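Researcher: Structure prediction, please.
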Amino acid sequence: MSIESQHIQPCLWFDDQLEEAARFYTGIFPNSSIGHLSRYGEVGHGEPGTVMAGEFTLDGMTFRGINGGPEFRFSEAVSFSVTCRDQSEVDYYWDSLSDGGEESVCGWLKDRFGLSWQIVPTRLYELVTDPDPARAEAATAAMLGMRRIVVAELEAAADAAVRPPAG
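Model: Predicted structure follows.
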């Protein structure tokens, strides 16, 4: 998706790691590339030749970024959710994005730049919205006790749920 066709784009504020982050992210996601990187010249606030701003595409979605300095940091108030087909995708994105970062709970992690990600298998959505409330509740309870989401454990919890007798 080109910048012209993507009407709304996330813009990420880095201290001075935009180029490093763009290389890190594009190395993880398919259909990704680094676009134009604007560099400081002799005039400006940054060291000449260092990246001031730029864009990169992750799996077809274009992001803008700036090296704005240390004034602002990422927080969990904004995160990016990666929907995964199966456990192998969950494991790939979890291991790749958490490398140098930190694991949190319920499928959340922070990468080495402090950006929050949610690594979510589609099966989680299916189980927590199961028409049987006991199964949905059991899957939700299992998810709340996890760091990385493990599909087999979600399914086992849902399958073990006992439906209360009617009436």
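Model: The first strand starts at residue 11 and ends at 14.
Researcher: Thanks, that helps.
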